[in-house]
Amino acid sequence: xxxxxxxxxxxxxxxxxxxxxxxxxxxxxxxxxxxxxxxxxxxxxxxxxxxxxxxxxxxxxxxxxxxxxxxxxxxxxxxxxxxxxxxxxxxxxxxxxxxxxxxxxxxxxxxxxxxxxxxxxxxxxxxxxxxxxxxxxxxxxxxxxxxxx
Length: 149
Prior knowledge:
This protein has helices at about 1-15, 25-45, 55-80, 80-90, and strands at about 95-100, 105-110, 115-120, 125.
């Protein structure tokens, strides 16, 4: 069993040598703030959580958790080029630099109300060489949008 533990600690050393992602410090500070707020809540009032949420509370909690998961996935994609590659392969994101956009142009039927024209600015993008790292678009926010040539 000793060789297994030696390999495990070798793997831990290799992982510690990797640089942290850009958003890791922000996520850690956010998690620490939430943990501190929960500790304060327990010290002040400390009521136990109900066994089952009511419908509205459960919907709010689910929405909050889904939003946090989407934010984590997007930040992870920004931090790790291999994760971003997955979004690029599925067409949810693209790598490029926006070179121009049309401020006054509207795209009909893409807003909350399909009968109204949404105020979106179509853009043209220049795609970089694969070995150069450029600013990347958000994998969740740009879902379904394609640059115009």
